[in-house]
Amino acid sequence: MAKYVTDTLPDKFHKALISWQKKNFPDLDYLLERWSDHYRQEPFHLMAKIGEVRNPIIEVGRYEGREKFKQAKEMDEEVMEACAAIIRAQASTEFGSIQQHRESLYKAQDPAVQFDVLRIMAEEFRHGYQMVYVLASDTWTKGGKDLASEVLEELLHMETGSHVLDAFNLYFDSFVDNVTFAAIIDRVGKYQLTMQSIFSYEPMARSMPPMLVEEAFHLASGVNPLKAWVGQAAKEEGNVSAANIQKHINKWFARGLEMFGDERGGSKNIEFGFKPMKNLEAQELYTAEVQKEVIDLLNSAFIMARYPGFSRHQAIELGNQILRSQEAQKGIEPSELFLLPSPKFFRRRGVYAYLMSDLHGNLLQSQKEYVQYLRKNLPDSYLSGPDFARYLENLERHYEGEEVKEGKLPFYG
Ligand SMILES: [Fe+2]
Ligand SMILES: [Fe+2]
Asked: Which residues, at least 6 apart from 9, have a Cβ–Cβ distance to it below 8 Å?
C-alpha cells in the first residue's frame, strides 16, 4: 500500500467540483451507500492524497541532478507552462472518462461488474480532484493571470466531444465499451502515471503512487469481465461473443496508442524532467503489455474453457501455434482467437495516420476496400455514431491532399 497524507481543496474549488459531480455523476451517492455490500476496503472518500516521493532529485533532462521543483515559480516559464498543460490534460481525461462511462453504465447485465465501473468512475473523479488540487495549491501566474482558476473554469465546462485527448471524446455505445476501455485505455493511464512518478515538479510526482494503486483496480475491472465473457463464449454461452470483444479491442487500441503522442515526439518531456522516456518507447512497452495481459490472457481463457485440463502455459502455447500457422488445432480456428491489431490499423494521428492498413499491418488498395474492412472489424454500434463519420470525412480529406488535424493535442513534445 502506498503511504500518503490527505488534504482537501480550498472551499471554493471543492464546492465547484461537488456541483460538477451532482450534475455529471449523481450515482456517486449510490456507490457510497452500497460500498460495504461490495468491498471490504475503506469506503471511497473524495480527497487529495499526497504520496511519498521516490527520488527528491530530478532524474532526467536539462535539470538532472537538481532537487525537484517544489513550487511553480521555481520553474522557467516554458517549463511551468508545459507542466500546467500536462496537469490540465491529465485532469481532462479523468473527468472525461466519467462522462463516457455514464453513457452506458446502465446497460450492464451483471450488477457486481456494474458496481466496479461505478467505483472506477468515483476514483477517476478523485484523480481529477487531485490534479485540480496540484494546480490550486500553488501560484501559477502567467502575464498576471491565474492559470489554476482558468483551467478549472475550462475543465468544468468540458463535455464529451471537447476533451483534450481523442480517446475521451468517443461515446460509449454498450457496456462492452466500459469494460474494454478499462482494460485498454486505463492501461495507458497506468503507463503515464508510472512515467510521471519521476516528475520534476514534486507535487505532481507525489500524486502518482496513490493514483497507481487505484489504477490497478481499474485494469482488473476491465480484464476480468472480458475473461469471463470469453470463457462463456468458448462454450457457446453468454451474451457477448468473442468476435464482438475483438471489434471493441480494434476500436480502442489505436486510440490508446495515440494517447502516448506522436511516435516521433516526447523529447521535451525528458528535457523538462517530466517523464523518463520518449513516446515511441513508452508505446512499445504498452503494446507488449496489451499483448500479454489482454490478448494472451483472453486466448488462454478461451482455450482453457474448451479444454479444462490445459494449464495456462499450455493454452498460451497452443494459441500462439494456431495463430502462427493460421491452421486449426484441437478444433480451434485461428479466427476464433484474439489478435492484437497492428499499430498501423485505424490510426488518425502519428506516423501511421490514415494509412489504409488491415489488422495485420497489410495495406489495402483502395479507400472503398478500406472502409468496407473497417465496417467489418469495428463494432456495429460505433459505425453508426458521430466519431466514425468524422473519421471517414477526415480520411477523405486526407486523400484529397488536405492536412487533417484532429482536435487539440496537449503538450507532448
Ligand atoms: Fe484516473
Ligand atoms: Fe483509471
From this structure: 17, 48, 129, 132, 133, 136
CB 395 within 8 A of CB 354: yes
* Cα 263 from Cα 214, distance rounded (Å): 28
Torsion on CA atoms 41, 99, 163, 351, rounded to nearest 10: 80
Please, is 16 exposed, middle or buried when counting C-beta atoms within 10 Å of its C-beta (0-12, 13-18, 19+)? middle
Q: Residue type at 208?
A: M
Comparing CA positions, the residue from 287, 195, 300 lying closest to residue 249 is 287
**Helical H runs in 162-201?**
175-195
pTM, to two decimals: 0.94
Which among 212, 208, 45 has a CA at the least distance from the CA of 131? 208
- How far, in Å, is the centroid of ligand 1 from the Cα of 212? 8
Architecture of domain 4-298: Orthogonal Bundle (1.10)
pLDDT of 304-358, one tens digit each? 999 999 999 999 999 999 999 999 999 999 999 999 999 999 999 999 999 999 9
Q: How far is the CA of 217 from the centre of ligand 2 (A)?
A: 8
Question: What are the phi and psi torsion angles at 250 (to 5°)?
Answer: -60, -35
DSSP 3-state of 141: strand
Separation of CA 95 and ligand 1 centre (Å): 9
| Segments making up each domain of the chain, as ranges | 4-298
Please tell me the number of the ligand nearest to residue 216's CA: 2
Nearest Cα to 382, choosing from 242, 255, 271? 255
Q: Which ligand is nearest to the CA of 125?
A: 1
Phi, psi of 141 (to 5 degrees): -105, 135
Residues in the chain: 413
d(CA 164, CA 141): 22
Selection from 395, 295, 301 nearest residue 342 by Cα: 295
